């Protein structure tokens, strides 16, 4: 329950955000989506509850504009995003408060718009509206948006976001890149996230949805997602891991894929025939439609033990023009070019910052992942995140506390401005449900040591914003520069969180 003073500050923050834009501003225009499932950077998101059955099982869900996944938000480089979010939630079997995080967007000088409840903003209450107004001029590529309030996005509030680059340096490699080549992978649950969160133990997804369609064991033969291609053309498929928990091994029967983008960063092209995609990760791959005209299975094998392709589960369809309207009979593979994260190198400005030795950054942190059972808490350096009585950003703006006193205690790390930070992650004891991904808000980072390897790479390591930590006994090391001031979230899995406060705060 929010105190009166906290509520007043939250209302002030909401009023300030709303004052940044009028929905009738002639320079922005009224909300008129070009298609029900495609929006521009100026848009309205209506967050409400509806009964849907994406895999054939009816359940109440938390949706954006009544669809799952949420509408694709399309923008061009240097566009300004002005997104009005309306909380119209009424189903109290799921979280009723909301917020929207723009996953992978740096939010320079707009930390307040990062969308993390209890870190950068108060949650948006039912019947309230909040306006996110931001730019990210240096960024293009594949991103996504989702609720960052409790575990709400597991109930459906998640969707893709793409910033197109008219001067893409790799545009010569593909012919088609549009809303029809965006592929979302997500786990789906027949039970609300509140009920699932009360379970101590492993929770299995009921189905995998590819672009919002799937099948579950014993369920009806629901229509699956079909991706149409024309023979001879080269397609840029933007594949997004929108999962709440699962990782996926993504393949297309009979086709190889050339990776050209990782988490919004162009990379030197690498050809593979399978890609592990963890929650929050994104890859752009070029696929040439050079096989005989037919239907081919697109497969997203999940990381849980109950995964199967029987009856079209965990699959979608790649359909060549002229192929019959039926399920494929293609066989998996061949798998000859295995994925290796160490082979991914930035196309632009490669190289990690600082002295090329582990432990030689300006600030060196060791973060140990742990687990406490009971009550089933994930830990970072033996501390489990709890929502503070007031969002971290509002604590900073109030000036009432020194950064070392910010709440929640033990979960806020104060970092100096414009310094090189190295974080080494390790796992203590059993890794429950792992490997798990780590996501840092407000920044990309260079992965100078990947999971499963003792080798380091400071010359041209992969640059991304989500990295898998591997298993107990392995270390993953990242580097980044504190050049984007504000409190930024670093979190592992859906429920394990650690805000990082970058000093010399600038908010406009």
TrEMBL record:
Ranges of residues in domain Plastocyanin-like: 50-167, 179-323, 386-491
InterPro entries listed in its UniProt record: Cu-oxidase-like_N, Cu-oxidase_2nd, Cu-oxidase_C, Cu-oxidase_fam, Cu_oxidase_CS, Cupredoxin
Keywords per UniProt: Copper, Disulfide bond, Glycoprotein, Metal-binding, Oxidoreductase, Signal
A UniProt-annotated Pfam family: Cu-oxidase_2
Origin superkingdom: Eukaryota
Signal peptide region: 1-17
Residue ranges crossing the lipid bilayer per the database entry: none
Molecular function terms, GO-annotated: copper ion binding; oxidoreductase activity
Family, similarity comment: Belongs to the multicopper oxidase family.
Name the UniProt record assigns to this protein: Laccase
């Amino acid at each position: 329950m929010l105190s009166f003073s906290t509520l007043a500050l939250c209302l002030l923050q909401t009023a300030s955000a709303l004052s940044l834009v009028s929905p009738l501003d002639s320079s922005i225009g009224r909300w008129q989506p070009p298609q029900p499932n495609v929006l521009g950077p100026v848009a309205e998101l209506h967050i409400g509850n509806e009964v849907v059955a994406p895999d054939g099982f009816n359940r109440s869900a938390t949706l954006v504009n009544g669809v799952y996944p949420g509408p694709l938000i399309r923008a061009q480089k240097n566009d300004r995003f002005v997104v009005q979010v309306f909380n119209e939630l009424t189903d109290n079997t799921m979280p009723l408060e909301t917020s929207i995080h723009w996953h992978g967007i740096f939010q320079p000088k707009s930390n307040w718009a990062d969308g993390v409840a209890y870190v950068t903003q108060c949650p948006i209450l039912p019947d309230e509206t909040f306006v996110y107004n931001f730019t990210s001029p240096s960024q293009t590529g594949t991103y996504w948006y989702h609720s960052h309030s409790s575990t709400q996005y597991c109930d459906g509030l998640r969707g893709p976001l793409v910033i197109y680059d008219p001067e893409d340096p790799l545009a010569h490699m593909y012919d088609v890149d549009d809303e029809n080549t965006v592929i979302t992978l997500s786990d789906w649950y027949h039970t609300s996230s509140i009920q699932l969160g009360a379970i101590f133990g492993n929770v299995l997804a009921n189905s995998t949805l590819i672009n919002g369609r799937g099948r579950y064991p014993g369920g009806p033969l629901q229509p699956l997602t079909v991706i149409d291609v024309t023979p001879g053309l080269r397609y840029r498929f933007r594949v997004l891991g929108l999962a709440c928990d699962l990782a996926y091994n993504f393949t297309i029967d009979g086709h190889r894929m050339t990776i050209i983008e990782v988490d919004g960063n162009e990379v030197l092209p690498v050809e593979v025939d399978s890609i592990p995609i963890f929650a929050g990760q994104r890859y752009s791959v070029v696929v040439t439609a050079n096989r005989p005209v037919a239907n081919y299975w697109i497969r997203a094998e999940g990381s849980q033990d109950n995964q199967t392709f029987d009856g079209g589960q965990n699959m979608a369809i790649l359909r060549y023009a002229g192929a019959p309207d039926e399920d494929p009979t293609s066989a998996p593979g061949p798998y000859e070019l295995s994925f290796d994260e160490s082979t991914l190198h930035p196309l632009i400005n490669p190289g990690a910052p600082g002295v090329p030795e582990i432990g030689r950054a300006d600030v060196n942190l060791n973060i140990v992942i742990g687990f406490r059972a009971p009550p089933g808490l994930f830990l970072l350096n033996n501390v489990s995140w709890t929502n503070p009585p007031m969002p971290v950003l509002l604590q900073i703006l109030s000036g009432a506390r020194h950064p070392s006193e910010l709440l929640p205690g033990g979960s806020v790390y104060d970092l100096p401005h414009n310094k090189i930070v190295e974080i080494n992650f390790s796992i203590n004891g059993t890794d429950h449900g792992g490997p798990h991904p780590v996501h840092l808000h407000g920044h990309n980072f260079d992965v100078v040591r990947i999971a499963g390897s003792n080798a380091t790479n400071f010359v041209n390591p992969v640059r991304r914003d989500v990295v898998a930590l591997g298993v107990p006994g392995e270390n993953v090391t990242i580097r980044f520069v504190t050049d984007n001031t504000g409190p930024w979230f670093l979190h592992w899995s859906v429920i394990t969180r650690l805000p990082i406060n970058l000093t010399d705060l600038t908010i406009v």
